[in-house]
């Protein structure tokens, strides 16, 4: 009765990334009303600097009330405005803000900017502009789980994963790029480009200049596009500093000016300003055809003129934006440190990172085996037993089991501390379980061990493990709480 799209299951909503959100919704943590509920650590949202935005709003109520500085109302003007090119003042402030984030080493021209309803929409529009259904984009793994929906679902574009490895900190190499390209050829897929997120979601790291040069070499060699999703460019809170693909292109423009027409940036205010609900995203491209087509397409998901007006005023306040960016980074850095320290106390390490709203966490030692089944089993135990929703690496298409993304900026510091206590109890009980298991195998007598949240664990062993024979195959039935 309905379209194929409506009836088929290609949206990606059944990924553990989204399933974890659903479980959280059923039983959300609240310090007083639901202290044993699930803590949401699977959502890359920045709530750390809301007070700064709110105090700006209080000081500038005219902008919210749709008034000019002289008190004259712009209500009618905004209510009637429907130009899909966007408010010129807003676009000017956006390009200035983008330059500011990049230390003013690059100049952006508002003529090359297309507004869209979030980076979600901006990425999809670029797919529609660059690739036909059945054509492909290469994405380094691990990647943001939403891309399966944003890039593929409505466009029919295919994603070819490029597998990066923990052995070099998941960095992009020329051989990985070539391998992914070869894989696409084997699948008879025409590759139209590579899409990167810089800084990376989920790794929380910025790409080096040398990685970006390799990427440009590859794009030149294969005659393809590069999309750089720089949605986290303003959340780089530690060195090394952020380098945008545009900087690298500017350095190489003399070599081949065609490449600048094949590089496109996606940006949004969802992360750096922490306003995902405002749905403010954009495409920046030096390709006139892409800008013109994307602008026409943007009419399917525009930003309301009221939002544009408010944010034009906010971004136009230079003193505020500088202070906000500085303070926001300081808070993010501190927050990340609380997570890293808490995890370290529980014997868990993270990939060294300098950006983003999350850490890429190594839990390989907690897996019962080095498989994605074991990763899924661990994810479920963490979700249901200790009430933390984190995102398993498999949902980010990581090729190595045992990595998880943990977000740190979408909750209060107290909630993060509760989460860290829970994870410590979990890893302690895990190692106690391991030692009980060992003792059950080797002991000839019943053993009694007290541990885990003050509960008494008693293990009974009814056979001689040392010299013989049967492994324990029903361990849990031998343990009574
Ligand atoms: C890399 C990346 N791109 C795009 C998005 C979507 O952002 P928006 O809320 O602006 O649509 C996200 C959100 O998490 C993201 O992490």
From TrEMBL:
Q: Pathway it belongs to?
A: Alkene biosynthesis; ethylene biosynthesis via S-adenosyl-L-methionine; ethylene from S-adenosyl-L-methionine: step 1/2
Write out the catalysed reaction. Answer: S-adenosyl-L-methionine = 1-aminocyclopropane-1-carboxylate + S-methyl-5'-thioadenosine + H(+)
Cofactor(s) this protein requires? pyridoxal 5'-phosphate
Q: What class of enzyme is it?
A: lyase
Enzyme Commission number(s): 4.4.1.14
Limits of the Aminotransferase class I/classII large domain: 39-423
- A GO term for molecular function: transaminase activity
Quote any Pfam family the record assigns.
Aminotran_1_2
Classification via InterPro entries: Aminotransferase_I/II_large, Ethylene_sulfur-biosynth, NHTrfase_class1_PyrdxlP-BS, PyrdxlP-dep_Trfase, PyrdxlP-dep_Trfase_major, PyrdxlP-dep_Trfase_small
Q: Which keywords fit this entry according to its UniProt record? A: Ethylene biosynthesis, Fruit ripening, Lyase, Pyridoxal phosphate, S-adenosyl-L-methionine
Domain of life where this protein originates: Eukaryota
Q: Which SUPFAM superfamilies match?
A: PLP-dependent transferases (SSF53383)
Q: Which GO terms describe its biological process?
A: amino acid metabolic process; ethylene biosynthetic process; fruit ripening
- Family membership, please give it: Belongs to the class-I pyridoxal-phosphate-dependent aminotransferase family.
| The protein's assembly and partners | Homodimer.
Its name, as the record gives it, is 1-aminocyclopropane-1-carboxylate synthase
Give the species: Medicago truncatula (Barrel medic)
